[in-house]
Amino acid sequence: MINETYKEMLGRKSVIREMSEFATKRGKEIGYENVFDYSLGNPSVPVPDEFNNGLIDLIHEKTSIELHGYSPSVGNTAVKQAIAESLNRRFGMNYTGNHIFPTTGAAGAVAHAIRCVTKPGDEVITFAPFFPEYHPYVEGAGAILKVVPANTEDFQINFEAFDEMMNENVAAVLINTPNNPSGIVYSAGTLKRLSEYLYKKESEYGHDIFLISDEPYREIVFAGVEAPYVSGFYKNTLSCYSYSKSLSLPGERIGYVAANPECTDAELISAICAQISRGTGHNCPSSMMQLGVARVLDITSDMSVYETNMNILYKELTSLGFEVIKPGGTFYIFPKALEEDAIAFCTKAKKYDLILVPSDSFGVKGYFRMAYCIDTAKVKRSLAALRRFVETEYKR
Known about the structure:
Blueprint: H1 4-9, H2 15-30, E1 36-37, H3 49-61, H4 64-68, H5 77-91, E2 100-103, H6 105-117, E3 123-127, H7 134-140, E4 144-148, H8 159-165, E5 170-176, H9 188-205, E6 210-214, E7 237-242, E8 255-259, H10 269-280, H11 287-294, H12 304-319, E9 332-333, H13 342-350, E10 354-355, E11 357-358, E12 368-371, H14 376-394
Parallel strand pairs: 1-10, 3-4, 3-5, 5-6, 6-7
Antiparallel strand pairs: 2-8, 7-8, 9-12, 11-12
């Protein structure tokens, strides 16, 4: 018999993927250049030359076994040490390679981190708006995801609602900063308040509460905005990272979990993650990709186009009367829809070949997400369609 859990999941596919599939189908009808597809967060800027050239060098320098053989179950030792040293240089930490566990992107990192610090029946708290795939990551570990309602004034943490939801069954708190979908970066003040609160609750409940920090957009931060390193605020932090955005490598599925060296059982986290991999069939990312990213740890793609696109859209949206908090990073913007029903709003937008993602699956009603990781020329061309949509459907 087919597993009923996964069969049921077929009926609630990712709305982001559904909108992207619609855009692809529509593109075949009218030409994809005429479809203003803001659905999928697929990095649009080129991979750095240093990365591609480094791969070529690896092919010439390394043996076939080194490039294509199995890496250790806890990851390539030299790569782990290089990642640790890069984090130490950049953020004043004291990681060693033993604190790093390579994964298949941030998704693999978050899924491993959740399983590492929870047991079936435990609760994991996250904050709206949040990445919808947190549901299967948490539920797949047998834990229960609880969502704190959004603070729509600035999309920082809603501490009052958080306190009401906190209880002794909470084993982990899951945050995402810079945030998908809002583009908001949690401030140092927010992170300090969060850490102080968690220390207080650890003492009150008499058990660890881990902070799982989902950080794939850590390098995409705009002028005048600081993105504090979360592990610098709270000892029991597991940082989950991906090179998908910083190096434009989403298809290579390469990232890591970094256990704060001061967290409980810090020296065991990587080994425990390896046992989780053993039970789930993850078994380490590509050996070649581990070696490839290790050569370019302190550089990124040229991501300046994302800030350019953000400024264009923010200016246009506000001029059309949308309520929107200016993003501090990522390549997403999260305006309030012009009606309460975000799904109806985004359905109407399709008539103008504008592909927008309604906010419901992000845990907030009445908003929509635009992923502006597309060519600036296409962003500019989309503005006329956006104006027609607003003027025709909402008489503005």
